[in-house]
Structure formats: structure tokens, C-alpha cells
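USER: Please consider what follows.
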Amino acid sequence: MKKIAVMGIVALVAASSWAVPGTIKPKNGEAQKGDIKWNSRSKTYSIEIKRGQGTASAEHKFDDVESMDILKPANFDKLVEMVEKGQGASAEKGLADIVKNYKMLVWDRPAASALITVYVQTKRAQKAYELGQSLIAEDKTAAYKGAMAPSYWQALLDLNKKLPLENCLKLAVTQGDRVSSAEATLMRGDIIMHDGAASPEACRKALKDSYLRVALMYNDTPCIAQRCKAMSKCAEAFEKLGDAEKAQRMRADAAKLAN
């Protein structure tokens, strides 16, 4: 009996994330502030709310939650900056801890995106893929929408998983938001460059069908980061084509837009 009880406790811990402070807004009801926890088994959020000297609790199904506001992990920005500076090995453990402790609590996807980038950069695409799959198992939209999706797509491309990648890109356009659509269009350019070994023909096609399209047509404010990324990719393609002037112009436009 003791062994069964211990196993039950372990299973419960594995199925639930840590409780973190935040605010949850149900689709039908007032926002609630307290300590929020995700339960994988029941696909529900539970929240402990302080009231006077005591506490009250509530539970919300995943599909019944409109939004959540969770305080950013204290070390998140520093870890992402380390990845951007090529110091991913030093950031790996911290990012993995955030993915684990903030499961389905807003910050797991951005942390997973950075961690997948580290795995891809260090030729561990299979591990990147497995990490992405673990988040998708909790929420299928993670495959085509949100912070993790573009990094996950890169892992799929590196593993030559073309059919799953194509499915993700179609969902990003048909069921995602404007940012997802922009990212999907950029990835199509990356696929062209990958399959064409960055040949002059591939560069011209990627520019026409992807990078320039995002740079010029996605003028929405939420897509500024995607436009900057597109301009940088345009610059790289123009350089490969020997057009240094256009490459310089694109980089200047990207810097201006970012500021």
C-alpha cells in the first residue's frame, strides 16, 4: 500500500506543473489572481486565490480560458540574450527549467523556442523535435502558432520531415494569426534555400516567393519582427547574388524598422 501511495504522488507531480503567480481570465467570468497550476491529465488550470486570512480555489478547463498573465521568469531575458550571443550551452539548463516549471503557463513556449534553437545550432535536431513534440502534446496549436512554432519548423526541416512541416505551415496560414502567417511564409523561403543549396536560382525564388513578400506586404504592427527578419534574409540572398548595394539597403531598412 505504501508503494502504491508513493507512486500515486509521483504520478500526480509529473502530471502537474509548478504553481506560479499570475492572473487567469475565463471566457465567461471575471479575471482571477492567484497561484496557477496546469494539470496535464485533466487539461485544466487550478488557481489558489487569497481571500482575507484564507484561500479559495477554482478550476478551469483549457478551452474555457480566454487569457493568462504570468510574470516573466526573472532570468528569462538573460538566457535568451545568451543564446543570441552564441552562448547557448550556458543557457541550456536554465531554459530547460523554465520549460518544465512553466508548462502551459505562458513562458514555456518562448523558452522552448530558444532551447530548440540551441539544439538545432549544435546539430541536435532530433532532441529539438522531441522537445517541440512534448509541448504540442499539451496544446496542438503550439505546432503552428506562437513563439515556439518557427524554431520547431526549423527542426523539422533539418530532419527532412517535409510532410509534417508542410502540414504545420498550412495550419499557420489557415488557423493561425497574422504573425503565424508571416513566419510560415518566411519558412517557405528557407525551404527553397535549403532544397536549392542556396543557388542563384534558389535565392531569386526565395526572394520572390517569400522574403520580399513578407518585407513588403506584412505591414501590420504585430509583424515588425517578422519584417525585420525578412529584410535580413533578403540581404543575405542579395549578397549571394552579388548585389551588395541591395543587401546594404535591406540591412539599413531592417535597422530603421527595428528602432
